[in-house]
């Protein structure tokens, strides 16, 4: 007795579907989500990325770059984390009318360096030669004062 499937599947049709999907994927026009979704939805998706991933996504293709560079709010949340460490710098840049992205780019490295110093990462450093690479950048007098106070409290 021959087993009859309850599904009515034509194996040739399934094969043709797979072949047509593969041809679209391998040589035909590929659509990415930014071409099919409204821009607002794409911005929400990009908004879930961390800063490094957002920067990488912005150089993926022209369409992604236009969306990411055109949405200042994508950079705002990342800039606010920098604001937690570099109040004066971020507030100054924003009052000068700079965008969130420009403000972030101008202050990100400084905020990372300052955060590491304030957490005591360099407390055991005895001389400048012992400093790891990328552990220094220009800091203002007030920032060095904060770092000195944190070191003296340790």
From TrEMBL:
Residues 31-78 form the F-box domain. GO terms for biological process: protein ubiquitination; SCF-dependent proteasomal ubiquitin-dependent protein catabolic process. The keyword Magnesium does not apply. It comes from the Eukaryota. Pathway: Protein modification; protein ubiquitination. Signal peptide: none annotated. InterPro entries: F-box-like_dom_sf, F-box_dom. Keywords: Ubl conjugation pathway. SMART domains: FBOX. GO terms for cellular component: cytoplasm; SCF ubiquitin ligase complex. This is F-box domain-containing protein.
């Amino acid at each position: 007795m021959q087993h009859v499937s309850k599904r009515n599947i034509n194996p040739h049709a399934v094969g043709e579907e797979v072949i047509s999907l593969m041809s679209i994927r391998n040589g035909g026009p590929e659509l990415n989500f930014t071409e099919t979704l409204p821009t607002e939805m794409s911005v929400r998706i990009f908004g879930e990325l961390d800063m490094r991933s957002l920067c990488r996504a912005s150089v993926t293709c022209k369409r992604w770059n236009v969306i990411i560079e055109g949405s200042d709010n994508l950079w705002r949340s990342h800039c606010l984390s920098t604001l937690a460490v570099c109040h004066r710098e971020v507030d100054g840049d924003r009052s000068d009318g700079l965008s969130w992205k420009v403000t972030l780019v101008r202050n990100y490295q400084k905020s990372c360096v300052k955060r590491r110093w304030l957490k005591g990462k360099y407390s055991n450093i005895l001389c400048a030669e012992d400093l790891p690479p990328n552990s220094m950048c220009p800091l203002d007098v007030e920032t060095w004062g904060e770092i000195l106070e944190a070191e003296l409290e340790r």
